[in-house]
Design a protein that fits this description.
- Its main location: cytoplasm.
- Monomer.
- Its cofactor is Mg(2+).
- Belongs to the shikimate kinase family.
- The chain has a single domain, classed as P-loop containing nucleotide triphosphate hydrolases (Rossmann fold, 3-Layer(aba) Sandwich).
- Helix content is about 50%, strand content about 10%.
- It contains eight helices and five strands.
- The chain has a five-stranded parallel β-sheet with strand order 2-3-1-4-5, sandwiched between helices.
- The chain starts with 12 loop residues before the first strand and ends in an 18-residue tail after the last helix.
Length: about 200
């Protein structure tokens, strides 16, 4: 049963898609808090299932095996009873099956960020394998051009997240969901202070 927070929604789940480092987890946690539902990170759920880090699994078993597990986890999460906000991995949209599952089984918000803004935000991040290359900006541009059409195909709504704070992005998401009649504004918690992405 859909909770009172999410009214007339086709699904109990609000899913966030977008580029790695685009703010899905940070925004997702705040959005979930605002509407009073649990936050779930699909990458965290995958690591629980495989009993280790995604990076190690990727290195040992390859992308295809990882994407198989990612699809299984996304499908299982979308079938769970109850409302939640779901942050997906940046590459989840690469599989058509995942795009179909997300689009049909959740309200999908695409947090769109340009490669240049992502580079400014992540240039000192040493934990992301995709940035540990000779030209990280070129890599981000390549990923963006490959994935942006897929994110758009999967999404119900696109939120431009170039440089706003987490607070601003959460408010944009809430406003979009309210305008679409998917969220009861009287149930939304008081907004939090600004926090940069």
């Amino acid at each position: 049963m859909v909770s009172p927070q999410i009214a007339r929604a086709p699904s109990n789940v609000i899913a966030l898609v977008g580029m790695p480092g685009g703010g899905k987890s940070t925004v997702g946690k705040q959005l979930a808090r605002q509407i009073g539902v649990p936050f779930v990170d699909s990458d965290h759920e995958i690591e629980q299932r495989i009993g280790g880090s995604i990076r190690q699994f990727f290195d040992q078993h390859g992308e295809e095996a990882f994407r198989d597990i990612e699809s299984e986890v996304i499908e299982a999460l979308l079938k769970r009873p109850g409302d939640c906000v779901l942050a997906t991995g940046g590459g989840a949209v690469l599989r058509e099956r995942n795009r179909e599952l997300l689009h049909a089984g959740s309200i999908v918000l695409y947090l769109r960020t340009t490669p240049e803004d992502l580079f400014r935000r992540l240039r000192h991040d040493t934990t992301r394998p995709l940035l540990q290359v000779r030209d990280p900006l070129a890599r981000l541009r390549e990923l963006y051009h490959q994935r942006d059409p897929l994110y758009r195909r999967c999404a119900h709504y696109v939120l431009e997240s170039a440089r706003p704070s987490v607070h601003a992005l959460v408010n944009m998401a809430l406003m979009q969901l309210e305008l679409a009649g998917l969220l009861d504004p009287s149930r939304v918690a008081a907004t939090v202070g600004a926090e940069p992405l």
